[in-house]
Design a protein that fits this description.
Membrane topology: Multi-pass membrane protein
InterPro entries: ABC-4_Integral_Memb_Prot, ABC3_permease_C, ABC_permease_BceB-typ
Main location: membrane
Distance between the termini: 28 Å
Number of strands: 9
Subcellular location: Cell membrane
Largest sheet: 9 strands, mixed
Organism: Sporosarcina contaminans
Strand order of the largest sheet: 5-6-4-7-3-2-8-1-9
Strand content: 5-15%
Structural class: alpha+beta
Radius of gyration: 33 Å
Number of domains: 3
Length: about 650
């Protein structure tokens, strides 16, 4: 048997320990390859989708690469420390340190090469399915499978360099103690777990402070808190696992009536030892799980914004013309012709918008005519309203503004015209986009409006197109939209005498972007969760030999299978669900702050989407727990 065969058999012999590590590595390579396949797809070259792919998939690839580097570094360090007994025996038998380093380098490179090969193979196998999903998300006519060297070269090059870095660094991670200490390995005594009460209370205090600040944040401070809270919560989480939890264990161990019960005694005693060994691992699992929750939750909140986009933009097309716009009639006729060519049903109403200064606030008020509003309301099947001479209604700029204005009554004078009006209540239906007419707008009765029109020309003319099948308008007005965008890019926007908004076009871009980002985020989150699960899996199976001996002794003392499951549950549940629970808490309070941001931006609720995310990921964790417990019990019950 030569040296390479010896390294290969070492990897095969430890396959049970390396199983989760290999799974996470293979999945990381596969996801990276799928992202790369979309990045280089010939069908999206030169299109807007390519820009979205570069932004979304490129960023995801970078995050995935550096996270995999951290994951491999941490995992390899843990693997090597768990094999100190084996290394001690090899050194005792005469192996030189140089040869030991070569062995570790060869083993790591073998695992890396296998992961790259298997991950790339499965990535290409699932590429067609991946393209089918992406095609549905971005509504492309076709996204065929293709064969190119670029995705393969990028994936193999990126991960091969990563594994070479880890292979070179890995030998330095071994604690070169005396051979006797290496051979003793995990058999070193595990006595009581030392902890600092001060750090324990600091951990509780930092987490409590982070949660309170996140729960009671406001629009004015939420951006600043987004930079302050993550470091506070991270430090608090570390102290929570290293000192706060041991302090709680110590409190319960001191209560003999609670502690001195046969199952509790065994479970708590073993739990203290596991906590001593795995505090840092629990901290890393919590942070990684929180990253997974937040990545999916934030992207899910974007889809919530897209799903409520129609409520915020009830009109199909919006065109606003200002004085001096010579293209007004030409643009409106073009929009009408394009709608008719595409056989799209529409209704449009022309709104001359007057402006006057209100004596009540000394601010300029935008004014529209009630009969025009009723014409538009009928196209939405809303009941028309009536106003007498001298009466007006507030036109709320947002849904939340309606509740604030509906119960208000204001008596004011329009200063330029001298017309006295009484503004009582707010218009009850949302038929305009937010801030469409203006932040300070009213609906005036027809008689008083006509008096205004006789005295002055309108400040602008607003064309409101109500289009029931509004998503079909993504190809309407593209020439006008490009002209507006080009004017902004060239800095000529001040010379524009009109504005144009196409919610159908905007929604198609948002839907494609958010759906693609959510899909990328889901795959990234799965990598995070697999990595987090692999840490726990590894710790379980590296201590499996000692656990088998302990439970074998207990079985000889009369422990039944039912009692064995009870003890295993009490040992495994904290390891799986305490980090998970802390991650859920972190994410929930982070989402409270995110809701504040969305309230300020668009007044939408993201509770439903985030609840689905958290419940769905929790179900996945429960399934994963029962799968690992089943395998763990089968090994525990197996004869030594």
């Amino acid at each position: 048997m030569n040296f390479r065969q010896f390294a290969y058999r070492n990897v095969v012999r430890n396959r049970r320990v390396y199983a989760a590590f290999m799974l996470a590595s293979v999945f990381s390579v596969m996801v990276f390859f799928l992202y790369s396949m979309l990045l280089f797809h010939p069908s999206i070259e030169g299109s807007a989708l390519q820009e979205i792919s570069i932004l979304g998939m490129g960023a995801a690839n970078i995050v995935l690469y550096f996270f995999t580097l951290f994951f491999l570094f941490y995992s390899m360090r843990a693997f090597l420390q768990a094999r100190t007994k084996e290394f001690g025996i090899l050194l005792h038998l005469g192996m030189e340190k140089r040869q030991l380093h070569k062995l570790i380098f060869t083993e790591t490179l073998l695992i890396g090469t296998a992961s790259i090969g298997v991950g790339t193979f499965f990535g290409f196998m699932f590429s067609k399915f991946f393209f089918m999903v992406v095609k549905q998300l971005v509504m492309l006519p076709a996204l065929p499978l293709y064969l190119s060297w670029k995705p393969f070269a990028l994936t193999v090059g990126a991960f091969l360099s990563l594994f070479i870095i880890i292979s070179l660094v890995a030998p330095a991670l071994i604690r070169m103690e005396s051979i006797e200490e290496l051979i003793r390995g995990d058999q070193k005594a595990n006595d009581t777990y030392d902890f600092s009460p001060v750090r324990g209370f600091i951990g509780f205090a930092l987490l409590s402070l982070s949660y309170i600040m996140a729960a009671f944040t406001s629009n004015s401070i939420v951006i600043g808190l987004s930079f302050l809270l993550p470091p506070l919560a991270t430090v608090g989480t570390y102290y929570f696992f290293t000192d706060s939890l041991p302090m709680v264990f110590h409190y319960f161990r001191a209560r003999k009536k609670f502690f001195w019960r046969h199952f509790r005694l065994l479970a708590f005693s073993e739990g203290v030892i596991r906590l001593k060994e795995n505090a840092r691992m629990f901290f890393i699992v919590t942070i990684v799980s929180t990253m997974a929750f937040l990545s999916v939750g934030i992207l899910a909140s974007l889809t919530s914004f897209a799903s409520q986009y129609r409520e915020m933009n009830p009109l199909g097309l919006v065109y606003q013309s200002f004085p001096g716009n010579e293209l007004e009639q030409q643009h409106i006729q073009r929009l009408v012709n394009e709608l008719q060519e595409h056989d799209i049903d529409y209704n449009y109403v022309r709104f001359p918008v007057q402006q006057q200064v209100s004596s009540y606030t000394d601010y300029t008020v935008s004014i529209i005519k009630l009969s025009n509003v009723n014409r538009l309301a009928r196209t939405f099947d809303y009941e028309p309203l009536a106003l007498k001479r001298g009466e007006a209604l507030f036109l709320p700029s947002t849904p939340s503004a309606f509740s604030q204005l509906n119960n208000r009554t204001v008596n004011t004078v329009l200063l330029e015209s001298g017309i006295e009006i009484r503004i009582s209540g707010a218009y009850p239906y949302q038929i305009f986009p937010a801030h469409a007419i203006g932040m300070n707008a009213i609906i005036l009765n027809d008689y008083d409006y006509e008096l205004l029109s006789l005295q002055q020309l309108p400040a602008s003319v607003y064309y409101a197109f109500n289009i029931p099948d509004w998503q079909r308008t993504k190809d309407i007005g593209l020439t006008i939209d490009r002209f507006v965008n080009q004017s902004y890019l060239n800095g000529l926007n001040e010379e524009l005498h009109f504005s144009f908004d196409n919610p159908g076009l905007n929604y198609s871009v948002l839907r494609i972007s958010f759906s693609l980002l959510l899909f990328a985020g889901l795959l990234l989150a799965i990598v995070f969760l697999l990595a987090a699960g692999s840490f726990i899996y590894f710790r379980l199976y590296t201590s499996l030999e000692n656990d088998q001996k302990q439970f074998d002794v207990l079985r000889r003392m009369g422990l039944t299978d039912h009692e064995l499951k009870k003890i295993v549950n009490r040992q495994l549940i904290p390891q799986f669900f305490v980090p998970w629970g802390v991650a859920i808490m972190h994410s929930s309070f982070a989402f409270l702050s995110l809701q504040v941001i969305w309230d300020a931006l668009a007044e939408i609720s993201i509770v439903r989407e985030l609840t689905i995310v958290l419940v769905g990921l929790t179900v996945v964790q429960i399934i994963y727990y029962y799968l690992i417990r089943w395998r763990y019990l089968s090994h525990i019950k197996a004869p030594n």
